[in-house]
Amino acid sequence: MTQGGAAAPLIEAAGLRKVHAPRGQGAPTEAVAGIDFRVRRGEAFGFLGPNGAGKSTTMRMIAAVSPVSGGTLRVLGMDPAVQGAEIRARLGSVPQDDTLDTELTVRENLLVYGRYFGLPRAVVRERALRLLEFARLEDKADEQVEALSGGMRRRLTIARSLVNEPEILLLDEPTTGLDPQARHLLWERLFRLKQQGVTLLLTTHYMDEAEQLCDRIVVMDQGRIVAEGSPAELITRHCTREVLELRFAADEQAGHAQRLVAAGERVEALPDRLLVYADDGESALAAVHATGAQPLTALVRRAGLEDVFLILTGRTLVD
């Protein structure tokens, strides 16, 4: 315990940096540029950001598989530079791409992985039974992995990452490519893990996923943290309560963007629509009609994390 009775953070970074060595004659690349964050035991903590923002690089440093270039990082009270093996033994990792052995059965994937941690065979067998039930794969236990759907493989990957009963579970884009039903089932499984006290760290490009799963979020851009807070705090701090989406004929769009600047707190012109940010979308729509503008369609919706994300990181595609 720290002073005042508050629990010490499970993960703590201060001025954390990662610099990649130059390729050929190029200059070194700073992937993570001096970030600070703390993760509390039992919370779900998300890293959001465009491609190349430094999210996955940060996760690899936490996983003690990529050395820190500068600053300090403590995971479970330990230094990854000198206690990497001890840290990895207490972590679970779900990579973006499944690394299951497709020639083995579902059950065998769990049994073989458990042996990597030096667990007794009886213990691994008992845990495999529980994890098959957790992942809703009991009826697929003796089928080969190559016969599974994408959602089933993802659930098996998560189940396998839990064989060592980790305190921290790292999830890199856990539901990419899954259909809505599979995503929601996976969310329910992850929520159960959090209820059981497992600390979750995840990266995701799905804003609804971040809102559903994360207690707190950091938004990263170009290796730096540009915002931190709960989903609700970030929306309140960086966006209006509602967004009015307007569509006009293509040749009228630019002219209306200039005329409607007073309809809300901010107007953003996109190629296919105008976004009017306002705390009261219906009042903003009335203000639009008062100017004489007649949009083809008008939609008032609640502002969400995607609006915050695009406001903070921009709409330019990053490869």
Automatic annotation (TrEMBL):
Q: ABC transporter domain: from which residue to which, for each copy?
A: 11-247
Q: Which Pfam families match?
A: ABC_tran
The UniProt entry's sequence similarity note says: Belongs to the ABC transporter superfamily. Drug exporter-1 (DrugE1) (TC 3.A.1.105) family.
Protein's membrane topology: Peripheral membrane protein
Q: Which GO terms describe its cellular component?
A: plasma membrane
Species this protein is from? Actinacidiphila rubida
What is the official name of this protein in its record? ABC-type xenobiotic transporter
> Which subcellular locations apply to this protein?
Cell membrane
Q: Which UniProt keywords apply?
A: Antibiotic resistance, ATP-binding, Cell membrane, Membrane, Nucleotide-binding, Translocase, Transport
Q: What is its EC number?
A: 7.6.2.2
Molecular-function annotations in GO: ABC-type xenobiotic transporter activity; ATP binding; ATP hydrolysis activity
Tell me which Gene Ontology terms the entry assigns under biological process: response to antibiotic
